[in-house]
## 1
Amino acid sequence: MSTANVVTVTAGPRRGWKSASTWVGAVIVGIAVICAVAAPMLVPHDPFAQDLGKRLLVPFWMEGTDPEHILGTDQLGRDYLSRLIWGCRISIFIGVTVTILSALIGITLGVLGGFMGGWVDDVVLFAVTTRLSIPVVLVALAVVGLLGSSLNLLVITLGLLLWDRFAVVARSTTMQVRNLDFVAAAWCAGCSRFHILAREVLPNIASHLVVVATLEVALAILLEAALSFLGLGVPPPLPSWGLMIAEAKDYMFFSPWVIVIPGVVLFLLVLGINLLGDGLRDQFGASADR
Amino acid sequence: MLRFLIRRLIVAILVVGTVLTLVFVLTRLSGDLAISIAGPGATQLDIDTVRKAYGLDRPVLTQFFDWVGRAATGDLGESFFFKARVSTLIAERMPVTLTLGFTGLVIALIVSLPLGILAAVRENTGFDRAVQVVALLGQAMPSFWLGLLLMIVLGLQLGWLPISGTGSWEYYVMPGIVLAFSAIPALTRLTRAGMIQAMSSDYIRTARAKGLSRASILLKHALRNAAIPVVAIAAVQLGFMLGGSIVIEQVFAMHGVGFLAWESISKNDFPVVQAVVLVLATIFVVLTMLADLMNAMLDPRLRGA
């Protein structure tokens, strides 16, 4: 019987810079979550209100800025800071909902395949192989293009496309847990198959799945931004960061800050989530599954 | 070896077949295609004409088997918008996408192999950490945004490279860098992990004991073994890059297959859309199969798997 160390914590000595980077990630994610939840209270202006008299005002570090709009305004005179905060709400919403949906699909498939083995496992592996061969961005664009863009459709499409990593990790960790003694004990005690899956296997692979979840949130946010940038993601006038970059693209050669600001926050949020995920991975000693 | 090959081939064919079916279902999701093809303001007569002309009045299953039968012989149908054969359209634009993908892969390998090897040799030093930080930064970088930044800095402010379009090799440098960025983190990590594992193995100790030079140990013995997973992932990454080039081609206005797909999606030109998805998926399947075969040839232990 192979007692792989899926349940034991094998993290080495925590190095200072590692835990510092985890904290940086946690702080970034924390700020983003607060912005997302409290966006209606935090925005200094209405993110949808246009003011054509105040178009493309520059942010605070440049000459001729308006103290009313510390990050300036966009091409329609909408307050950039307010739109950024509202965009954070959209990014976090997409990241979390897509991850929940893809986790449901991926974990179900992975646990079933890993636990049952045999032809069930073959089917699961085949599904993962097929899913990997499908170009995600292209198919998501095609679905949104054919059915019209809406937030819900975007979430469902991405959720149906991003479950592969959940399935792979859930499958391999379940295979390791399946052969451990406490599962054998549960069998002997006469527990049902469902009980063993839900109460014995799932809690023991949960830490690995949490790490995957952080990666998926980051990936979903990046993909949403890319789709919105191509005009087939979040529908305007919702201020998705990708859409803000797309709308500002025509002005970027004259005033680069219009694309720099939303890009930097997108980059920082994804970096923060990844740093937090790396920290969790070390904490759980799950360096094997990447 | 032969059994291994046949089994991989059967799986590959099944995968492509499944994608074929999914793509067909996908394009039928939007309801009545004839209405969207005829466009806004079309009369019922127009719609009926379109429906007949494109064979959309036949039962769905007949349409499906027709599409599968034709696709199997390389006939991908005709574009509604371009009024040309889809296979011709894709063949015309494939060189741009392939050149872009290979440029990206080469740049990614040039950056990540030395970085990964050096990071492994100097494990847990400042350099190693710096490399890991670079990988993290690369992972978080939105590719389309990086593309726009490069256009502003390298294209406009420094004037080193042309901003967009296709032509001489200079046009491929910026998009190639952007594509490479998405593959560099994975390739670097894998090279580093593979080298660390190889360096701690018995055959390296033997090589050291024989008194071989450091360079010879690193490059001849360790790298050859560490390269096996890297080669596999490089092939897979190339597949991802070809699929992801739709964003980059849009940013840099390069008329490759991705750009064609984007145009066709916005014009409801579904034969082109389904064909591009199918072609890209097939390329991906072939690439992963080649990677597996290459692995099996380099490492006989994998053949049984």
Note: Chain A touches chain B at residues 17, 126, 129-130, 132-139, 141-143, 145-147, 218, 222, 225-226, 229-232, 242, 245, 249, 252-253, 256, 259-260, 263, 266-268, 270-271, 274-275, 278, 290 (CB under 8 Å).
## 2
Amino acid sequence: MKVIAMILAGGKGERLYPLTRDRAKPAVPFGAIYRIIDFSLSNCVNSGIRKIYVLTQYKSLSLTRHIQHGWNILPNKLGEFVHVISAQQRIDEHWYRGTADAVFQNIYTLEQERPDLVLILAGDHVYKMDYKRLIQFHLDNKADLTIPVIEMGKGSSKEFGVVEIDQSYRIIGFTEKPPKPETIPDKPGSILVSMGIYVFNTELMVRRLIKDAKTDSQHDFGKNIVPSMVKSDRVFAFPFESGSKEGAYWKDVGTIDAYFEANMDLLSPEPTFDLFDPDWPIYTHEESYPPIKIVLTDKKRGKSYGIALNSIISPGCEIKGGKVGNSLLSPGVKVEAYAEVDSSILLNEVKVGKEAQIRRTIIDKGVRIPDGIKIGFNVEEDAKKFTVTESGIVVIPRWIRM
Amino acid sequence: MVKILVVDDEEHIRLLYKQELSEEGYEVILAENGKECLRKLDEENPDLVILDIRMPVMDGIETLGKIINKKKDIPVILNTAYSSYKDDFMTWAAEAYVVKSYDLAELKTKIKEIIDRKKESS
């Protein structure tokens, strides 16, 4: 059984702006040392799917570099690889018009590989899934298409494709983002939503993609391909819970608030989504850094101990007399004396100057926070200079001079 | 009158098709390769394309992909001396695949079928 994965990594991620100002959404850092795409890639590798294409499009430099540096780990000689395919305009002289178009435009790649099954993944979801079980389920049901689904509250129907199934898990209805969704029988408050992941029998997928390419549609899996296949083909729903061993944690970190929350989730002592799982390692690109250093300074105002509480701290971080709490620090972050960082996400090489106070703030790579500055305490003031979300999270973009 | 664009790099084939299909009552226009085909598609707005596969400049399979993106609803009949391309995914985008033969009967039948179907649906 030959399976290839195609990871769609071309979305703009506009709602994650300014984190996506200089990078595609899958390349946005997550969990201190990872990029969002590392989760889908790690799932593939851990599931034994090791022919992986990453389809990129907008702002792909950072993503391509990350994959070249961090994911050059599969032996090509054994037919295993992670290849980045940028939009080539081989068929069409446009950017991809939708998710289905992205795959259709790469039909020549499928042609060369001729897999039995194609696994279509999103490059911007945070979750763990054993795709082996998904594929087994697909084969057991003699399905043409299988879609992992997850149970959610009725209220979230406007964000997802809502699935209706029969007793055998066959999908009998699929509606993209309905205001009034079909709820699960005997669970009136819940719906089953599509996770935007698909296993297709290759030949049938190609036929359906061609048919779609020849019609006026949005060329989108969720909006066009799936609803039409539900009518004509064997489409099944794979309950996500049965493919994940630690409960159903799945996040499409679509907004800054969701991104912030998902990062903060990792700070729980035993999070549902655990990075410290020896059976399901998450791989990434790691540069060499010196070890973490948390030390005291002994200057004008007397001794100041470096402290980090309830936080995730990466290699290369130096906390020299500052205090860090409830935060995630990416590699190479420096926090100087008397500075305080609380409930914040500091990305690579951020430097927080002396006596600065940072609260509920995401600071993008390389930003230097001057001595004595306060951020996250006065929404109105912060909003004059930075992006501030609905729930009051401040985002300080890259390259800013403060 | 139904307008057919015949794309083939061999001149004698183009002339033969032009003569035979004109006798069937079609208006026939010609192109030597895929690139010329795409240009004529814009200029002449044909109702159907008969497309060879092995051609210089731009082959029929690449051309077919571009036709779909340019004009979604224009039917294409692939017409080649080889049956081996039938496995190529992109050839599945054609309305029909007819292997070349000295006798154009099969090709003519397919053309008629497709034109009739098109008339019905419009």
Note: Residues 105-121 of chain B form the longest helix (17 residues).
